[in-house]
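lol ok so funny story. i was supposed to be doing the assay writeup but got distracted and ended up predicting the structure for this chain instead. priorities right. anyway since i did it might as well share w the group, maybe its usefull for someone
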Amino acid sequence: MMGAVEMLALSLGLSVCVAGLGLAGGTLVERMSDDPRLRDRVWGMALLLPLLPPVATALLLMTPAPVHEVATLTARPVVVKSIEATTAAPVGVQAVAPSLDPGLIATILLVVAGALILLRMLVLARRARRLSALLKSGQAADTATTELVREVARGLRITAPLVVVSTAATEPLLAGLRSARLVMPVALSGDTALQRAVITHELAHLKRGDHRALWMEELALALLAFNPLAPLLRARRSAAREEACDAVALNRAAAETRRAYAQSLIEALRTRAGSQGPGAVPALTFTGAGRTTAMHRLKAVLTPAAPATRRARIGALLTGVVSLALVGAGSAALAAQREPVMQERPQYSANARFEPDVREPLNGAQVPERLGHRYGEDAAVRAATTSVQASYRAETEAKFQRVSAAEYQRYCASDKPDEAGFCAGVMFGQIDSVGVCTPAGLSDGTSDRGPALNTYVERGKREVARLSPRRDEGAHEYASRAIRAAYPCPASQAEQSTVVAWMPVTIEGRGQLNPGDRMRVTLTDPSGALLAESVIMGDGEVRIPLTEAEFPRLGQGNRTYTLSGAIHRTDGSVQPVSAPTTLRLGAGSQRSARNLTATLDFGG
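and the output, tada:
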């Protein structure tokens, strides 16, 4: 399981893998066909695919996290001499949380990626300003050039753009987001056929909408600044796009025109001389991708490529489908690693507190039985729960299933015995909750707790009436919030009680529970102080909560804890673990502790 930071960092790595997959797929399609139109579509998809993992992960993290119910019971530290007579057994399997925190590494990676994205955005803004200055420096083109542009535009069935001439332009270019402008250099060959071919090339961009798609690609490239393969994908996409426009410009052109067109391209590349760097403007220039793919483009100019065959188109389609499927599978696998929100669902036993489960109905016999397990044969408790016992009849059980916070607030204000009893019963379950510091008389087993219990419930009801219920909150969560407000812990103790990880415990050997059996798993420090416990009756997942207090701070040494347990059989026998497990936690290992697991062996 991973948190948000780890998932985002891993999505960046998955983005690099997807870019590599796109390069492989695009290269495969290029071997199938030289048709620039087919290659243009394939490379366009390959450029956008690496965005999917980080974008999908970011959108997923905006949704509520999944809720995982765990059968646990936490306890405030109390000093005990031993744990079910098992602490004298030899130490068994060791579970170690590494000191190197993956969360810290993920945070560093995200900071570096963010810095690269910001730098790329700043460079893009600088290039946009250079383009704006270039457009402002242009002057209206002469009548002959304007008429030639309009004639070509009519042939392509598009609206002619505004034509300007600029001394700063070394080659024709098309720019603009809403309204396109065609910028022509002052010195252009007087060959009318060549002029027509060059203008047709730029207007082919306009017909395809490349002047808008260019900005989407620039933004995608900025967001993929952390991806070292993104510039390669962009170069291949630009080359295929330029070749597709060359094919339109040179359609039915004579060999002389093709040679002059190629010579003009070579001259433009010489003049450009590496301006594809940070200072290049974000516009559709005649040279396009520059020198990196110039030889392939010149070959296509002189020797037009044949249209893609049906086999090549089907192959490209299958390549795209397989790529999308792999990207989707990778993103889904990453989403499955999202760390769920742990919601405590106690299992009741002789050592567990009463906490009615609002998702399961309780009958009249279960309520006093569970309360008796927690508080013994206390007359005050029996009196406080008499109304609960009388009200949980079969015909009213459905009423208290899946109770919302608003309904719970109404029940706590009600005078009806069943509703008032349900309100009190849920509050009783919060007495030993993490973050609740009740008077010692409520949980130390003293005989006369009646007045203290009444005061406890009344204070809880006052907080329930004061606090506003939340839309996605249940009765248990709402009561927990109210009791924490009524009986808050000191700041230092509350900080130490914050659960940062729920460690799953795998049971091996003869650890199966029969009907009526009870398993108790405990976590203690070297002094024998009980830090947490989990009591299971029947089938249930064992998880031990680890709070901030259990983890050493940076600069401190590792801390060692003992994980032990025993099964209490219905015949009165006790089956201890064959050997306790030693748990070592290193400094700065809070995040990596999410993936920590421990094993208890009950023997063969």
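Residues 71-99, 274-279, 346-378 have pLDDT under 50 and may be disordered. The chain has 19 helices and 17 strands.
back to the writeup now i swear
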